[in-house]
């Protein structure tokens, strides 16, 4: 079978090699799946460069979420490859206990995109931030894969959603996703807009996958007893939260590492998947696919994602 392999860390365009490798053999508690679609995430590129907090041993096959067909049964499932990355290939192993059924009538591409970002968004907004109906939710980078999921999940929860996005096209995408207000951060500061839109109340929950200056500015428009959810650092800078500021304004900075629940509380993943399937069936959640690439063009797909020129999710199809 064909699989992308990383033998040394560096730029994906130079260190990724499409190779012929042996089809993996499932062990106890595993299933072999034919990959039907693999969704890309921003951290895939960071992992290949060695800049992510998780560093799989070399060589490895990138890709952390997929829709696959179980060999021998034909059942479509979504989830992560066993033991870490491995989705950018024609076949992959999955833990049987973590291979979740695909909602009926959902395409392979959208199914592959329902796992990481939507699980993360659901756990972040509900388990970590306890988002309530009617509250103000501020979603940064709303047109991206992480942000687009958070907008939909926030609206499904009954929140009033403010999104930030870069440029007119991405602003329109956020509106189409259901955001009540959208701020184009390339032309205006989101802080005064959030204060004005909320009548001086501020954002009750802030969903921040960007970090850096965005995190720093978010602390200026968070509500009393607000929750600032730290999702990631796509800006490249890990910010610091002054404890005195959190005390004076009475807000919480909440960390979100969804992957830990796979070992700390795996039952939560099953519960969230069931809730996501219901949201899909009710028409409240619909993953947005920016572009689909053939497996051979994985480096180009990662480059496009890294350039932030995409909206929603980017997917590989073997």
From TrEMBL:
<dbReference type="InterPro" id="IPR020843">
    <property type="entry name" value="ER"/>
</dbReference>
<dbReference type="Pfam" id="PF08240">
    <property type="entry name" value="ADH_N"/>
</dbReference>
<dbReference type="InterPro" id="IPR051397">
    <property type="entry name" value="Zn-ADH-like_protein"/>
</dbReference>
<dbReference type="InterPro" id="IPR036291">
    <property type="entry name" value="NAD(P)-bd_dom_sf"/>
</dbReference>
<dbReference type="InterPro" id="IPR002364">
    <property type="entry name" value="Quin_OxRdtase/zeta-crystal_CS"/>
</dbReference>
<dbReference type="InterPro" id="IPR011032">
    <property type="entry name" value="GroES-like_sf"/>
</dbReference>
<dbReference type="Pfam" id="PF00107">
    <property type="entry name" value="ADH_zinc_N"/>
</dbReference>
<dbReference type="InterPro" id="IPR013149">
    <property type="entry name" value="ADH-like_C"/>
</dbReference>
<dbReference type="InterPro" id="IPR013154">
    <property type="entry name" value="ADH-like_N"/>
</dbReference>
<feature type="domain" description="Enoyl reductase (ER)">
    <location>
        <begin position="10"/>
        <end position="316"/>
    </location>
</feature>
<protein>
    <submittedName>
        <fullName>NADPH:quinone reductase</fullName>
    </submittedName>
</protein>
<dbReference type="GO" id="GO:0008270">
    <property type="term" value="F:zinc ion binding"/>
</dbReference>
<dbReference type="GO" id="GO:0016491">
    <property type="term" value="F:oxidoreductase activity"/>
</dbReference>
């Amino acid at each position: 079978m064909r699989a992308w392999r990383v033998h040394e860390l560096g730029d994906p365009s130079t260190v990724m090699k499409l190779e012929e490798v042996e089809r993996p053999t499932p062990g106890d508690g595993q299933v072999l799946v034919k990959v039907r679609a693999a969704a890309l995430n921003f951290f895939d590129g960071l992992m290949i460069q060695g800049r992510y907090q998780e560093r799989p041993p070399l060589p490895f096959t990138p890709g952390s979420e997929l829709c696959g067909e179980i060999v021998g049964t034909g059942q479509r499932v979504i989830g992560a490859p066993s033991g870490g990355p491995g989705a950018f290939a024609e076949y992959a192993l999955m833990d049987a206990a973590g291979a979740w059924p695909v909602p009926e009538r959902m395409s392979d591409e959208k199914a592959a995109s329902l796992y990481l970002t939507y699980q993360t968004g659901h756990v972040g907004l509900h388990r970590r931030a306890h988002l309530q109906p009617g509250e103000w939710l501020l979603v940064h980078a709303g047109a991206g894969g992480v942000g687009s999921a958070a907008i939909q999940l926030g609206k499904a929860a009954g929140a009033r959603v403010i999104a930030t996005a870069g440029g007119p096209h991405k602003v329109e995408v956020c509106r189409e996703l259901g955001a009540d207000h959208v701020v184009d951060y390339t032309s205006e500061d989101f802080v005064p807009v959030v204060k004005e839109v909320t009548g001086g109340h501020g954002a009750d929950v802030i969903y921040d996958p960007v970090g850096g200056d965005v995190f720093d500015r978010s602390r200026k428009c968070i509500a009393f007893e607000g929750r600032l959810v730290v999702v990631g650092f796509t800006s490249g800078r890990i910010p610091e939260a002054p404890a005195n500021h959190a005390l004076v304004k009475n807000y919480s900075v909440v960390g979100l590492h969804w992957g830990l629940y796979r070992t700390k509380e795996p039952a939560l993943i099953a519960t969230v998947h069931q809730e996501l399937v219901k949201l899909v069936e009710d028409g409240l959640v619909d993953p947005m696919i920016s572009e689909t690439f053939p497996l051979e063009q994985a480096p180009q797909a990662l480059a496009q994602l890294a350039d932030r020129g995409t909206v929603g999710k980017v997917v590989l199809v073997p």
